[in-house]
Amino acid sequence: xxxxxxxxxxxxxxxxLALVGALFLGGMVGGRSRDTPASPTRPGPVTxxxxxxxxxxxxxxxxxxxxxxxxxxVEDPNPDRQLDYRAQGEPSVDFLDGLGSYQEYxxxxxxxxxxxxxxxxxxxxxxxxxxxxxxxxxxxELAVTRVPGGDSSRGPLFVNPGGPxxxxxxxxxxxxxxxxxxxxxxxxxxxxGESTHVVCGTFEETEQMxxxxxxxxxxxxxxxxRQGSRDFAQQCRDGSGKLLDHLTTIDVVRDLDxxxxxxxxxxxxxxxxxxxxxxxxxxxxxxxxxAGRLVLDAAVxxxxxxxxxxxxxxxxxxxxxxxxxxxxxxxxxGDDAAAIRADIDSMLTRLDQRPLxxxxxxxxxxxxxxxxxxxxxxxxxxxxxxxQYIGEAIAGDGEAxxxxxxxxxxxxxxxxxxxxxxxxxxxxxxGQDEGADAVLPAWRETxxxxxxxxxxxxxxxxxxxxxxxxxxxxxxxxxxAPPILVVGTTGDSATPYEQAVSMAEQLESGSLLTLxxxxxxAVTGDNQCIAEAVDGFLYDGVVPAEGxxxx
Length: 551
Fold this sequence. Notes:
Keywords: Hydrolase, Signal. By secondary structure, the protein is α/β, with parallel strands linked by helices.
């Protein structure tokens, strides 16, 4: 087996652990049976009863979206978006005939089938309106997986791994059994995975976009980055058509409420990680009446205050790694933290002018920094590997860092994964921007909080030239929702801990649980203190004492 294949297989396992798997498989603290045993969930058709007159329809908030409180953090938002661009030719995304009314969506027959592991894993596809304000229009498909748990007495527990852009079916399989007697449900949100998903350009067009210099040093490089972003946005509109106009988190949680109803759950019990915390918070805002026990781990920023730059989290995580490296016999990069830092910075800076050749491809500055960031999602167990790969790149071998970047981007020999396309498609419509001319100044402002990672990771014009407008900017406080457990890790690389603090403060019923440590996400790791607190909340509704910190 070649070194490249070994590295790829090992990193695939690590990525699965860091971004999906470790969030699901660790810390298997046993649950407690509470309710009268129910019949196990079995494959076959299920047709819900009609929604009684006077009750709200699944997916339809009691307070319409247009009447929800909003914030307006940006004046004259999205000035450079290509909102007048029309798809060239016929988009690749196909839609289905709609069911005609909210009641018909709520009473559709759900066909559960055995799809893996001898029937343990069951799958189905359901329909949801493309436009929730027009149930008589086109429909999309949502792919759902469930894994029955124990006697199923606790009912469904929905899980979401974040992104945006990642599907949740694999997370359901990985987390199955983690919380006893819960049936674990995962779905690929609209735009992702096996659901009706975003389609963008060809492999070659995407490759061109990926190889753009994300840290422009002059007008020519900046012009190329801007044009590449314009082209990419148009390619996504050409491939996806009107799907791009209906990928907001508001749409996602309306789908989720429909899925809750079709699963037979009166309340939504839910574990969301990273972007999944935004999904959970938005659900509590729109559907407080059916919010159950919501666990939101590795929180994103939901306030209208200036967010902590994500790159600051990567800088903190890199600093922690460098500190470990300087004091460990397991790291060959040296014993002087300042010198290690300078060597890493010099290596990445050199890549800007002289990318490393790797099997006919190039490790660029942007891809090199991304490769490092990928392992910073992990906790300190990844430090030895990160030290090795950085050392190899410093010595002129960029294969491992390029492999990491490829895995993050979902790149194979001739394709890119859907998350690369769904991430901007979903993220850009959730937020607002100030236009292209604000990008470089905003990027340079982050140099003060991330002097190594920010200049090397670079920036993007993806949203500034997107072809879809923004969703209403809701003021998410979730009035009337039951207690919500927000979990944050002090050394989180991708969602800085400050965001968990602010989410818990802004949600009227939010409560903060803190892990002092490294890594992105804590809830399903192997920390006994966190596991016991989360178990107590999901099983018995017990909120940890204010100020609870686990180490």
